[in-house]
C-alpha cells in the first residue's frame, strides 16, 4: 500500500464513522472522501498547514520560472516551517535524494527581537552544523522594509553607518520588491580604491559583500534578507510565502 493510498483509506474510515454518528448520507461521505484525496492527489499533506507536498506553483505567491532542477531525479517539494501557532513560512525546494544527495532539512529559529531565521542543514550533519537561507523581520505598523533594513546598520562599522543607503535591485525574481543596503557612491569609490583586486563588504552583516550573493526583499508585513550564497540554492527564493491560520483552522496566504 502506497502512502497516498493509506492516507485516503484513513480519511475514508474517519469520514464514514462521522457519518454514522451524524446521520450524514453515504453519498455525502463518499464525496468528502474524494475531495480529501483530490486535494493532494500528487503528494501528501504537510503536518503544519496541510498543504500538498508536491511543490505546485499555485501554493506560492511566486516562483522563479527560470529555476531548473539540478538533476533528472531531483523534484520540487513544498517545505514549511512554523513561525508561530498561527503563522507558517511555506516555500518550494528541490529534493535530490533520488540523486543520492543528502536530504536538506529546514527549521525556523526565532530571533532575539521578534524576527527569526530560516536554517538549512543536511541530514548527515550535526544539529549545530547549519546554514542560513533567510532572515525574517516583522514590520511595525507603518514601517517599510527599507526602514527595517536601515536599522540593521547598528551592527555595521560606525564609520560607515551614515554612508549606507538602500537601492532597488533589478533582475531579481521575488514575490515582493528586491533591494540592497549598500555603500553610497562616495564610500563605494573609497572601497574600490582601497581594495582594487579584492572583494570588499560594507554596511554590516545585512549589507553587501562582493564575494557572495545577498539581498533584501520588501513585503507588506515583513522584510526578508536573503542569503543564497555563491551557488544556486536548492530552494526557490521567489517562492517564500507566509500563511496565516484563521480561527476556524484554515490556512491562507498572506498577500
Structural class: alpha+beta
Report the uncertain regions: 1-37
Report the count of strand segments.
13
Q: What fraction, in percent, of the residue positions are helical?
A: 10-25%
Total helix count?
4
Q: Give the overall average pLDDT.
A: 87
Q: What profile does the largest beta sheet have?
A: 7 strands, antiparallel
* Whole-number total of structural domains: 1
Cα-to-Cα separation, first versus last residue: 39 Å
Structural shape? globular
Note the run of SSEs as H and E.
HHEEEEEHEEHEEEEEE
Strand content: 25-35%
Biggest sheet strand order reads: 3-4-5-11-10-7-6
Give me the Rg, rounded: 22 Å
Summarize the structure in words.
This protein has 255 residues and is of the alpha+beta class. The chain has one domain (66-253). The chain is built from four helices and 13 strands. The protein has helices at residues 3-22, 26-38, 145-151, 185-194; strands at residues 75-84, 87-95, 104-110, 116-122, 131-138, 164-168, 177-183, 201-202, 208-209, 215-218, 222-226, 241-245, 251-253. β6 and β7 form a beta hairpin. α1 (3-22) runs antiparallel to α2 (26-38). The longest helix has 20 residues, at 3-22. The chain starts with a helix and ends with a strand.
Amino acid at each position: 500500500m502506497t502512502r497516498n493510498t493509506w492516507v485516503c483509506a484513513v480519511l475514508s474510515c474517519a469520514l464514514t464513522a462521522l457519518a454514522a454518528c451524524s446521520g450524514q448520507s453515504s453519498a455525502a461521505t463518499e464525496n468528502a472522501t474524494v475531495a480529501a484525496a483530490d486535494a493532494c492527489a500528487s503528494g501528501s499533506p504537510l503536518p503544519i498547514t496541510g498543504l500538498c507536498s508536491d511543490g505546485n506553483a499555485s501554493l506560492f505567491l511566486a516562483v522563479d520560472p527560470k529555476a531548473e532542477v539540478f538533476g533528472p531525479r531531483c523534484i520540487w517539494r513544498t517545505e514549511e516551517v512554523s513561525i508561530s501557532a498561527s503563522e507558517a513560512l511555506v516555500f518550494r525546494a528541490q529534493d535530490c535524494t533520488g540523486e543520492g544527495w543528502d536530504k536538506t532539512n529546514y527549521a525556523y529559529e526565532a530571533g532575539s527581537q521578534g524576527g527569526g531565521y530560516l536554517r538549512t542543514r543536511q541530514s548527515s550533519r550535526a544539529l549545530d552544523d547549519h546554514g542560513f537561507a533567510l532572515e525574517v523581520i516583522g514590520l511595525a505598523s507603518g514601517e517599510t522594509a527599507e526602514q527595517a533594513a536601515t536599522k540593521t546598520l547598528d551592527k555595521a562599522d560606525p564609520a560607515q553607518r551614515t554612508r549606507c543607503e538602500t537601492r532597488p535591485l533589478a533582475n531579481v525574481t521575488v514575490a515582493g520588491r528586491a533591494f540592497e543596503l549598500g555603500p553610497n557612491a562616495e564610500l563605494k569609490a573609497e572601497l574600490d580604491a582601497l581594495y582594487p583586486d579584492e572583494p570588499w563588504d560594507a554596511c554590516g552583516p545585512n549589507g553587501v559583500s562582493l564575494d557572495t550573493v545577498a539581498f533584501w526583499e520588501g513585503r507588506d508585513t515583513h522584510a526578508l534578507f536573503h542569503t543564497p550564497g555563491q551557488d544556486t540554492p536548492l530552494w526557490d527564493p521567489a517562492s517564500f510565502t507566509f500563511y496565516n491560520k484563521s480561527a476556524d483552522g484554515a490556512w491562507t496566504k498572506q498577500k
